[in-house]
Design goal:
single chain; 0% strand; 0% helix; elongated; 30 residues
């Protein structure tokens, strides 16, 4: 579970806690 959704242009982060789960991590967080 990640809490990073700042790089929406490159990818999304898993936001666990708000029912938001995206399996798309940017190269920055990967």
């Amino acid at each position: 579970g990640y809490k990073n959704v700042r790089n929406m242009e490159g990818g999304y982060g898993s936001w666990l806690g708000n029912g938001f789960n995206v399996v798309k991590l940017p190269k920055d967080e990967l």
